[in-house]
Amino acid sequence: MDMDFVLCDFMTTHLEYKALYPELMYTHSKPGFFLDLNPIDGAVEGFQWLMESPHFDPYILTAPSVRNPHCYTEKRLWVEKHLGIAAAYRLIISPNKALNIGAYLIDDNLTGKGQDGFAGELLHFGSERFPDWDSVLDYLGPEQKRQKKGA
Description:
CATH architecture: 3-Layer(aba) Sandwich
CATH topology: Rossmann fold
Strand content: 5-15%
CATH superfamily: HAD superfamily/HAD-like
Distance between the termini: 26 Å
Low-confidence stretches: 145-151
Strand order of the largest sheet: 1-2
Radius of gyration: 15 Å
């Protein structure tokens, strides 16, 4: 799964940084930007559900911001802070997502970073079909999800 706009609320921090640093063309070029991102609603719980499920082996697949070399470290620190150290072992930073193998890629973009070349199924996060984490988890395993919630 992707980080920005899938696990992390990129837009809120972008707007905050735009107000604080109007001279910046790229808000994400400012050191600290990626550390300041908040999780998207349901993202932490969704990731944990996938980690605990015997049916999935989730990895975080994010593209780097080459305009901010700090992003490599900041993304790693964000993962540990919000998802735990075990998730940090599942972090892949790659400018081309098509180089990775998996059954599913949960991403907010259909193209741009190799998503269109990904061999598995692309779940377009934020789309009409997958607007949020509940819809993604319902698609991936509604029966397991209901059992987990005690329904």
